[in-house]
Amino acid sequence: MNKKELLIIIPAYNEGQNIRRVLTQIEELDLASVADILVINDASTDSTNWIVKEMQYPMISQLFNMGYGCALQTGYKYAVRRGYRYVIQMDGDGQHDVCNIPILYNKLKEADEDGECPDIVLGARFRKDSSDFPVSLPKKIVYSLFRGMIRLVTGEKISDPTTGLQGLSRKAFLYYSKYNHFDDKYPDANMLVLMLLAKFKVVEVPAVMHARKAGKSMHSGLKPFWYMLRVMYSTVIIIFQVKFLKMDAEVGLRSADKI
After folding, report:
1. pLDDT the model gives residue 224
2. How many angstroms separate the CA atoms of 89 and 108, rounded?
3. Domain boundaries in the chain?
4. Residue 20: other Cβ atoms inside 10 A
5. Are 158 and 123 in contact (CB under 8 A)?
6. Sheet with 59-61, edge to edge strand ranges
7. How do strand 166-169 and strand 86-89 relate by DSSP bridges?
8. Are 201 and 118 in contact (CB under 8 A)?
9. Nearest-CA neighbor of 231 among 171, 153, 175?
10. CA 5 to CA 2: how far, in whole Å?
11. Pairwise CA distance, residues 133 & 226, whole Å
12. Which class is domain 6-258?
């Protein structure tokens, strides 16, 4: 059983221009007593692999480019097997400021008035106290549609339905680690719909984020519209499974050892 309770998962695909800076900044937080770092190298063709090896961080390298969601799920499986209690996932491109890590970590352990801690903590770009973050018009349209979809289906208001900066309890990442519980390509608003319908506790905190300085986003150009269609289709399937077939309808109310 692992002695540290927090695993920081960083999926990376061709982030050779960014990954060294991200890892160095995490080092400066001095979390070594409670946290480990794991890089999921999604078959990068640049220097990502060599930089992480040079810095001597644990890394899992996919043999083929499997996609963002698959990289994250690989990290969840690792966290389950190594006995971590919490996971924080952040991108390897430098957009997620490392100052958010302690905030998400502390929020994961903060009980509400009913004595319950969150299962998922979202680092949100669009809350009142969040830092300014530039967003293109296509992305604004997509985010607005996702917010409306989540509100309509679950009744919950989520300001940033596509944030990749998240903290997860063991119960949440244990559920995600199982077969057919996680989108292998675009795990965004669709996964929030699933978790909310399944009665997992989801909260948001304001986050500090920055525009990408180098490299290429997986949502560049007109890709946001294809991504939107993929996520919407996935969401329809989830709604049918949970609301009509009652698959995992209240799994979030169970303890982790019963999932």
Report:
1. 67
2. 13
3. 6-258
4. 16
5. no
6. 59-61, 35-41, 6-12, 86-89, 166-169, 120-124, 202-206
7. antiparallel
8. yes
9. 153
10. 7
11. 23
12. alpha beta
If 0-12 CB within 10 Å is exposed, 13-18 middle and 19+ buried, where does residue 5 land? middle
> Within 13 Å and on the Cβ side, how many CA atoms surround 94?
17
Q: Which two tokens stand for residue 209?
A: 């984020």
| Contact (CB, 8 A) for 26 and 38 | no
Residue 218 confidence (pLDDT): 55
Q: How far is CA 150 from CA 89, 143, 163, 206, in A?
A: 22, 11, 14, 19
Rounded Cα–Cα distance for residues 138 and 237 (Å): 24
- Alpha helices (H) along the chain: 19-27, 48-54, 68-82, 100-108, 137-154, 170-177, 189-197, 223-239
Mapped onto helix, strand or coil, the DSSP state of residue 166 is strand
Q: What is the pLDDT along the chain (259 residues), one digit of tens a residue?
A: 568 999 999 999 999 999 999 999 999 998 988 999 999 999 999 999 999 999 999 999 999 999 999 999 999 999 999 999 999 999 999 999 999 999 999 999 999 999 999 999 999 999 888 888 878 888 888 899 999 999 999 999 999 999 999 999 999 999 999 999 999 988 999 999 999 999 999 999 999 999 877 656 554 555 667 888 999 999 999 999 999 999 999 999 999 999 9
What φ, ψ does residue 241 adopt, rounded to 5°? Answer: -65, -45
What integer pLDDT is reported at residue 134 of this predicted model?
A: 79
What Cα–Cα distance (Å) separates residue 242 from each residue in 18, 158, 199, 225? 39, 20, 11, 26
CA atoms within 13 A on the CB side of 76: 24
Q: 3-state class of 157 per DSSP? A: coil
Phi-psi map region of 52: left, alpha, beta (phi>0 left; psi -120 to 50 alpha) = alpha
